[in-house]
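Give me structure tokens for this 297-residue protein.
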Amino acid sequence: MRRSPPIRIVSLLIVLAVAVPAVQAALVVDAGGDRTALAGEPVTILATYNDTNVADALNLSASINWGPATTEPEIALDDDHNGTITGTYTYLTAGTYAVTVEVVDNATGAIACDTLNVTVNPQQMNVKVAPKTLNQKSNGIMTVFVSLAEWLGFGDADSKDVTIPDSEEFRIGNATPEKVNFCMKDGGTLILKYKRQDLDLAAGDTNLTVTGNVTTENGPISVAGTGAVSVINPGNGKKLGDGNGKGDASAGKEKKVKEEKQEKVMEKVQEKVNQKNQKKSSEEQQKPNGKAKGQAE
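Here you go.
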């Protein structure tokens, strides 16, 4: 029996549908935008993925490479095709880290990756500098007061669990302190003394940055603080005082007092000259009168 043309066309379409499978979208992951965090505080990443194959949704695995370490995050299905990847990590050292989120389809072998940057800033501390004016031509000692009270208890950490293993690591550029003291007043103050000649400061600088580390239950954490300062260059190559702030100020006062004394001496000398001139002028005026008086007598 001969088939009619319409039946043969339908049969051909069925064969094509079986032979050519539907094109499936590739596995895609989005790690999100770049992040900023503080050292010692947790960073949480919420990445999303898309996979149109419903059968593979339960066969996915993921990892997050944070730079110093790699962790296995949690995967939550939003629906049959999409999901969320959640991971948390705590950076201890300041810096910029490239973080890669990877998703693997264990059924097909497909892999999807996406990268973001996490910039980790040091914990901030309160810094005060004495003297506030630094002379490039002077030597001596500069003192930096670092207040611990404001940042020892950062985040959820207990202040009593935070220690300073080596206070000499508190640097200004490449300079380390010559002497370190610790004062318990007002919650704790670190007193750092630096040699001025060790500091690489340019005339006109208005800020001085101190960097260091403190140790918590999680490990050493980067800290930093900036203090106001005025760097000057007299340009005459002469040093005032002994190089420390008090010496410079004292030398300036002594110079001013000396100048004032010289002015007073000049005033007294001039006053004596004026008095002498006045006396002489008065005597000259009285001479004619005296002669006339004698003649009259």
